[in-house]
Amino acid sequence: MAVSFRSVVLVVGSRFTEEEADVNRDLVNPDVYPALYGDELPKELKLVSRATLVETSAISKPALGSLYANPARVEDGNPKKSKIQNSIAIFNFKLKHPGIALFRDKDGRLYSINGKTRHAILVSEWDYQNVIADIYEANEGFSDDEVAYAIHIFGQASNLDSDPAGETTMEDLFDGCNLSIRRGWITKDKNGVPEESSIEEHLKKICRDNKLTPKTMETLVQRVVGQWDEKLTGKRYWGSKEDVVRFIEGKVNEYLNRILQTHDKIDYIVASDTDSIYVTLDKLVEKTCEGKTNDQICNFIDKVVGSRIEPFLEKCFGELSDYTNAFKNCMVMKREVIADKGIWVAKKRYMLNVLDEEGVRLSEPKLKLMGIEAVKSSTPQVCRGKIKEAIKIIMSKEQSDLHKFVADFKKEFLQMSAEQISFPRSCNNIRKYKDSNSVFIKGTPIHVKGALIYNHQLKQFNLGMKYPYIQDGDKIKFLKLLEANPFKFDVISYMTKLPTEFKLEQYIDYETQFEKTFLDPMRFILQAIGWEHEPKASLEAFFG
Asked: CATH number of the domain at 241-371, out of 3.90.1600.10, 1.20.1250.20, 3.20.20.70, 3.40.640.10?
């Protein structure tokens, strides 16, 4: 079997090696997956081993309806199974993704609780004798039912974070709610209808970090209640909102192609989400708004949407309601924003230059960001602000303007203090990763590694009375160090201020910090539009 830096060429009937498990352990950054390894792991569960080789014959399959038979989805129910199969066949088995998650019960039996599709493919398609896995156990003090619910939450929450090819869908969340209702994890009212507050609490445990907008949360909760009410009352509701959105996409495209006489050649749907669609009206603007200001164009679009498109949508939903014999038509679509520019990096990751928001005309364009690093708390505050400024330049100016902005900011960045450019994090599991001989064990998350080094150096410098030691649950900062530093470590963490006694200021790796905190988040955006963050050298320029 051939081993590369990031992937394994699979051979039928073969095995993963310890070397490959080590590569996986090194490539997977625990900080990126808090639901698997960090503070978002359910308190009922604990990680006991990461990137461990486990014989496939040792992994049990829980009986249908048993306590632990509650995965994020059934093995064959992953809508992207074929894509995962093809990806493995073409690009080999990538070691950069977290291993299969296994739960070990009190009798020592192992059950797959995440990564089930990859496990099934390795066993059924490649006859692999072992897998690279993360092993979890139950923490003491919790009942079997509490642990089973934690496993259910873990399965769906980790799919949102860990496996880009097998992500949790709205249907998975919906089915998970129904399972939780049957198990009694979501409570019912006196009439036997699931309580909305209990459903919402359940979904928040899975989605965390506002992955569901308030509107999407409300829609999903109402669907769960509606479907359950259907069973009690015999009322008929629509089964899939995604199907409804696809239906509307087709109707809007048909309508706009007819009105604009583009003969079904143009796809006017830029993107769609669970309960919304993004439509480009550039052809309409080109035909009717030559020489008009942005404000006049907004007025025109607002009028067209209100007088033509929204009534058309209402008519389509009425037709669908009649066709499906629905008890009640609850589907309504209203115009949300008008934007003159938008960039979609990936699904649920986009930015809009908003001119009008729900009928309110803005004096200055407003930047709407979704799923972009600039709004994440794990990005240093100074970089969050600069990323937003850079996006505004991307939306309104030229690539050369961005080059100047990045170059100017880098000059500022190189003069900033350690505290300004450090990564913010929460620190946990210090005792778990501590090693009395070498400070930390292999596989320690980088920010925890930095915390253990910090605590060690406080003892060495006899500074324990001046600076507090980092403990579990503390909010910390960390940054990369140059190799030539006197500590001989590549990272240091600290509480609020880097101790001056360490004399590390001249050893801060500013280049790496700039790369990781500012340039890396920007690259996703720039790649989507074909821009570079700095002028690109060419042979023509070199030779004049």
From this structure: 3.90.1600.10
Q: Yes or no: is domain 393-544 CATH 3.40.1820.10?
A: yes
**CB proximity list for 170: less than 8 A, separation 6 or greater:** 220, 241, 242, 274
CATH code, residues 7-168:
3.90.1530.10
In DSSP notation, 255-296 reads HHHHHTT-TT----EEEE-SS-EEE--HHHHHHH-TT--HHH
CA–CA gap between residue 159 and residue 168 (Å, rounded): 5
| Contact assessment for residue 434 and residue 393, using Cβ atoms and an 8 Å cutoff | no
Per the confidence metrics, is the pTM higher than 0.85?
Answer: no
Cα–Cα separations (whole angstroms), residue 452 to 196, 466, 477, 489, 494: 44, 17, 13, 11, 10
Give 391-443 pLDDT, tens digit per residue.
Answer: 999 998 999 999 999 999 999 999 999 999 999 999 999 999 999 888 999 99
Which of 135, 73, 132 has its CA nearest to residue 102?
135
